[in-house]
Amino acid sequence: MSTGLPESLDPWRAARSGLLLTGEVALNAFARLSDVIVRSAACTIVVQYQLQFERDRQGRFLLTGRIQTQLPLQCQRCFGVVDVAIDAPVQLALVKTEAAAEALPAALEPLLVNDDAVAPLLVIEDELLLALPIIARHHDDECEPPVAAVIHHSPHIEKIQKSAQSAPNPFAILRTLKSKPIPDDTE
Ligand SMILES: [Zn+2]
Predict the structure, then answer these.
(1) What is the whole-number distance in angstroms between the Cα of residue 25 and the centre of ligand 1?
(2) Which of 63, 125, 158, 163 is the most interior residue, by most CB within 10 Å?
(3) Distance 75 CA to ligand 1 centre (A)
(4) Alpha carbon of 42 to ligand 1 centroid (Å)
(5) SS3 for 87?
(6) Of 17, 26, 25, 28, nearest in space to 49 by CA
């Protein structure tokens, strides 16, 4: 599948020239994400990305930007599909060694570059995986189907059931109506 993104690029050169990558890519293009998302609900969803390679005043090589999408995840309460909106800022510093990574300020996450190559698609996928909620769940009243066990033990429901028993049975009324002779007005 063509994503419109270069499979791999030299990040140092990209930062020197201020390369900006921006566009959309299908959510199903991310192999590792497919284990987490509800695939059947993902086929029409796209990921919007904006990736800016640049150098800051300290001479650091940065990759900044933003990734936005909607991830169809499985609700951990009702097991239905819950759409989780993702809007993840990207604040990465390109480093060659673990020591350089540890020296970074807290606001910057290290992106360890091997062989002077970065795969933009993998960077986007890493950021999406990091942005996943720990537990995906609908809002309290949006789950489906309702949890029957909870309703069964509600004292409020028992009260309703009792009052329903003392009320006249609507089907009894229906029976009376049916047993009435239908007036014959054809003549
Ligand atoms: Zn739910």
Answers:
(1) 28
(2) 63
(3) 5
(4) 18
(5) strand
(6) 25
63 and 123 Cβ atoms separated by less than 8 Å: yes
pLDDT 10s digits, 27-76: 999 999 988 999 888 889 999 999 999 999 999 999 999 999 999 999 99
CA of 140 to the centre of ligand 1 (A): 8
Q: How far is the CA of 128 from the centre of ligand 1 (A)?
A: 22
Which region, left, alpha or beta, applies to residue 23 given φ > 0 means left and ψ of -120 to 50 means alpha? left
Q: How big is the chain, counted in residues?
A: 187
Where in the chain are the domains? 11-131, 148-179
Distance 46 CA to ligand 1 centre (A): 23
pLDDT digits (tens, 9 = 90+) for 113-172: 999 999 999 999 999 999 999 999 999 889 977 545 454 455 554 554 555 555 555 555
Q: If you measure from the C-alpha of residue 76 to the centroid of ligand 1, how many angstroms do you get, rounded to a whole number?
A: 7
At position 134, the amino acid (one-letter code) is: I
